[in-house]
Specification:
The protein has 253 residues and is mostly beta strands. It has helices at residues 173-180, 190-193, 195-200, 235-239, and strands at residues 27-34, 42-43, 65-71, 89-94, 111-116, 137-146, 160-161, 207-214, 228-234, 247-251.
């Protein structure tokens, strides 16, 4: 299988208190390109939730917007990560009414990633007419090697599964996920200087990018000012299929 390659940056990096090199080697990733044929994999439109699975709601009780759905069995041949399930389907939802950023522990519950091994159902209509519904875009997978610090040379939108994120505001999202998901506020420096931050530091490297969702004119997705949504998950949670542990970060220009 041909893998699209990029020139890697310098791969070594040192912490102030850790003189061991970080592993910033290449990672396999999938660029989501618009597909000519209709498939299960898509952005926007109506979700094919399995029978009996309810449309997710935010903490305020209002329904979330549907973002994307993917068939994991179609990703097996790309060998993205050993922890990735080889079957089942993922459905992504986000609270567009509040559009949280993910730096506040209180943001938990304003996004939802559903994993199901049940057959997909018929397209489900939004529960309310007021809910923002994104335009449907069928997608296919284009395998490439991603490197930390190198932006993809895609000709269209930077929707991506796995690999290294393409940060807009800062390349420390793994740390932000680790701290915020464990109760530390990262909207200012307080969480980073909290005594618990040092205790949580060993878990930073456990976080993997699950999905990067770009602002997209075709689907009418706009994340603040031309931003991106980044869905992250720990390696151990990915292996255990605990997608309820996903943490989300929004960054914009």
């Amino acid at each position: 299988m041909e893998v699209r390659k990029q020139e890697p940056p310098f791969a070594g990096s040192m912490d102030e208190e850790d003189d061991s090199p970080k592993d910033f080697g290449p990672r396999r990733a999938l660029h989501l390109k618009e597909a000519a044929l209709r498939t299960f994999n898509k952005l926007g439109g109506r979700p094919h939730l399995p029978e009996g699975v309810a449309w997710p709601t935010a903490p305020g009780g209002h329904p979330m917007s549907f973002l994307a759905q993917f068939d994991l069995a179609e990703m097996v041949r790309f060998k993205l990560a050993p922890e990735m399930p080889d079957h089942g389907r993922l459905y992504f939802f986000y609270d567009t009414e509040n559009m949280v950023w993910g730096f506040d522990p209180e943001n938990a519950g304003h996004w939802r990633v559903i994993y199901s091994e049940e057959p997909p159902g018929a397209p489900m209509s939004p529960p309310t007419e007021e809910l923002w519904n994104f335009q449907e875009k069928q997608v296919e997978f284009d395998l490439f090697e991603s490197f930390r610090g190198i932006f993809n040379d895609n000709e269209d939108f930077d929707h991506q599964i796995m690999g290294y994120a393409q940060p807009i505001q800062g390349d420390d999202m793994e740390e932000e996920c680790q701290l915020a998901s464990n109760g530390l506020y990262c909207g200012d420096s307080s969480g980073y200087h909290d005594p618990r931050a040092r205790e949580l530091a060993p878990g930073i490297d456990d976080w993997l990018l699950l999905l990067q969702l770009d602002s997209d004119d075709d689907t009418r997705m706009m994340w603040s000012d031309m931003g991106m949504l980044y869905f992250w998950i720990r390696k151990q949670d990915l292996a255990a299929r605990r997608f309820d542990k996903v943490w989300m970060i929004l960054q914009c220009f």
